[in-house]
Amino acid sequence: MTEVRRTGAVPASLWERDEEVATITRAVDILCADRSSPGTLLEARGEAGVGKTALLAETRRIAEARGCTVWSARGGETLRSVPFNVVRQLLQPALVSMLPEEARDYLGDWYDIAGPALGIADPGERQADPQNVCDGLVAAVRRLARREWPLVLMIDDAHWADQETLRWLAALAERLDETSVLVVIARRPGDVSGDSARHLEAASAMGRPLAPLNALTPDATAGLTRATLGPHADAAFCREVWAVTGGNPYETVELLAKVQDSELQPVEAEAAELRSLNRSARGSGLVARLEQLGVDATRFAWAAAILGGGITVDMVAALATLDRADAARCAELLRGARILSVPDTAGQPGADELEFVHPLIATAVYNSIPGALRTAMHGIAAQLVTDSGLGAAAASRHLLKVYPDDDQEVVAQLREAAREHLAVGAPDAARRCLERALQEPPLPESHALVLFELGCATLLTAPSTTIGHLRTALAMPGLDGEQRVDAVFRLSQALLHNDQLEEAVRTVEAEAARTPDPSARLRLQAAQYMWEGIHAGETSSPRRSARLAELAATCTGRDNAERALLILRGFDAMTHGESAEEVVELCDRALVNGRLAPGLGWTDTEWGLELPMMLASSYAYADRLDRAEALFTEALRSYESAGWSGGHLALAHAYVGLGHRRRGRLRDAEQSLRASLRIAERVGRGLPLYWSATCNLVDTLLARGHVEEARTVADQYGFAPPYPSTIVLPDPRTVRGRLLLATGRTKEGVNELEAAEKAAAARGRHNPVVVPWATELARALAAEDPARAARLATDARRQAERFGTDTAIGEALRCAAALETGQRAVRLAAQAVTYLEASPCQYEHAAARVEYGIAARSAAELNRGMALADSCGADGLVARAREALAVVRAG
């Protein structure tokens, strides 16, 4: 325990807080010492009334004395449903103080993304990506920290902060090494659950806890009592103060204030009165004291508790139905009674606001309002907020508290609030509004529409919940025509995200069978083939490829349904190893003037990202890397400019990396794939996008010759069975088989490649470039079972010639050469070089050139191969060529 303070100059709640204050002082000094100093997060944790708020006030005093800019915010128990409430309190005042043009210039590309969440810009028309909004808010802090250095951010009652703020806080804490700012938060243990708890704990884990805030000792309580009441307070009276309050600093200060008000003498004979005085400061005693101030003051306090934040005399007067003069008088009474106070908002807008002296008082007042009256007051507050022009989203927190009453205006307001929440990147807030709208309930003709909107709001955050909502909506009247098709398509997407791919296929197939509209039926059939096309399971529907080919043969690309079928047919033909020329011709027909058609773009939601990914992948493996890379780059640019920084951006980076890998730019590929994995880590492990990034990174590291690093990545990110239900390019079983062989686990590697063979055969995927198990297995079996190895190599060459690309044929010839010796090996290696020289895949060309140089013992070929391998970043291939060159020169 720190030394007991004995001076009356010390603020009451800072007794026995020397260690905590010293830590804060050091943190402020470090911040002020250097603009490039890393940021710090300090956390004060303790029970209610233990002095957290006082410690933050001392932080402000210390920081401002050293010339720091200090911004503060506070969570509220009744405001947790308001998205971005706390982060807006922190950052909005500084941004509002700028001219609009200055704020836009200052935030740059992040203005349209973070601005709506901060309430300084109008939201766009489409749903905002929550992850990118979070990233935008972190970027805003980084820029403001440079502008306002040294900057201190303080959050009181962080356990009551809204979920969106806590997500931002966790992201900021993770990146404080690059942001010179001091963040100090105060929170209670517990009092938070679900995703909010996860985000808050993540932030806490990145910070440094202050010493635990414990109750005052008897000696400290005695010192505080004498500092307040005078040195004549006797020991027995001081001991009773400690016994009554348990050493809680807030309760101690309030009790001593009551002693002063009552003119009680601090002597043992009066100590028995302390318990009744203490009861009047909290709970039912506080309510009784409030009632003694009169009916008007009580109504004023109730209205303030209902509002929770933004408490002004005018707003409370309107809610409590008081005239302005009476409301002002009540405010003064409540301030005199230490129930309300003026917040410390020096230098910030809203300095005329009121707040409760302590959250414990706010909670007690709110709970004292009779239930029916409290509900009615929330309804009135919702109307006042709406009439004030603050919008449906601002009113929605009150509407959530109103009893359902078959009020269609409430349904309409909640639906509008949900749209506003989605537009600023708060899907959970939208979900709460729509779930409440269903309880009203909506009229039968709009009930299904509300369920559909709810399903769209929860699609990415809770796919299993979405499935139930959309199935219920589809079973009700009200969804017809395009809306019904959209709902079925969204349901199939939710099933896909919930790893129920076969059910997704059955859902669109059944709806297509009962849909009379040919256009709608074609779209549903395309969705069916799309989900079947990305399914990595062991079975495929009978004659699927044949039916898809029949449908695509009639398509001219006149609308998006036909273009989708052409893309699906091209992707199917590519994975099955059919003619690459036909694959490219099908894909070209799906474009409009060489570009993605409107409605099939990367950010269009009608079809999703799967179709353009299939299109670009088909080009990539058909040796049309120019078109594939243009599409992958367009995806990255589209998601970044649209503000999508979650799973979509992770996939875009992964496929840009795939393009670099196919081209042979291995260093660039590794950089893109690591960026993809960083984003995928935030989205969540186990998803198909996570597999795409990990599989491609392992493949790239193996190509570079960085085997140990590839093994580390595989171990770190769980690159092992079971594999996802959706297709991953390149084939993860084959890549893992290569990894096992490269690390000396030959038997396991062979088993994995044989599993890849079985899976590919079951799905008819015979493209030797996409699933190159045969060439890898042939090399692995060359010494142990040369006859089988030769058969595998022959079959791989046959499949490669059927597909017809230079890369496929060249790779098959490389494998055949590796199984031969003498002049036959030289001739096959030379043929491999000829094909791969014409291929866009430079790493494979480099490998073929080095292998030809080894077979022919040609220093010139080894030098050419080594130079090409070096330009690709294939360090292992360079080392192999250098060793072979030394042997040739020595021989």
UniProtKB/TrEMBL annotation:
Record Pfam families: AAA_16 (PF13191)
SUPFAM superfamilies reported in the protein's UniProt record: P-loop containing nucleoside triphosphate hydrolases, TPR-like
UniProt keyword annotations, A-Z: ATP-binding, Nucleotide-binding
Domain Orc1-like AAA ATPase: 16-184
Signal peptide location: none
Recorded superkingdom: Bacteria
Official protein name in the record: ATP-binding protein
Organism: Streptomyces ardesiacus
Origin organism lineage: Bacteria, Bacillati, Actinomycetota, Actinomycetes, Kitasatosporales
